[in-house]
């Protein structure tokens, strides 16, 4: 009878040891997951902080590169003045006035004209 009791209690202790190991393993995974979640939250916070800083720097840069700021800085700090602008007239050529290219004659030109192409 002692053998029956021992043999029946052995699977119970094995099951209890496996259950305890599973609980310890699950606890370790939960602890590891919470650490990863904390690191992910800190990375997301730093991304948001850097995005806000980028927006602020873009606004500062656009303020520095505005034409009015550049003009006032050059005038006040560097003593520059606006130069007198000369008007330059450029004569416009009409397409009819431009020299038209001479058409080439020959069997290649007529063959290209057949397909709607031209040689220029």
How would you describe the overall organization of this protein?
The protein has three helices and no strands. It is an all-alpha fold and 120 residues long. The mean pLDDT is 80. The N and C termini lie far apart (113 Å). It has helices spanning 2-64, 67-76, 107-114.
Number of helices: 3
Low-confidence stretches: none
Helix content: 55-70%
Structural class category: mainly alpha
Distance between the termini: 113 Å
The amount of beta strand, in percent, is: under 5%
Q: What string, H for helix and E for strand, traces the elements in order? A: HHH
Describe the SSE topology.
Blueprint lengths: L1 H63 L2 H10 L30 H8 L6
Short description:
By secondary structure, the chain is mainly alpha-helical. The chain has one domain (2-90). The chain is 68% helix and 0% strand.
Question: Keyphrases for this structure?
Answer:
68% helix; 3 helices; mainly alpha; 120 residues
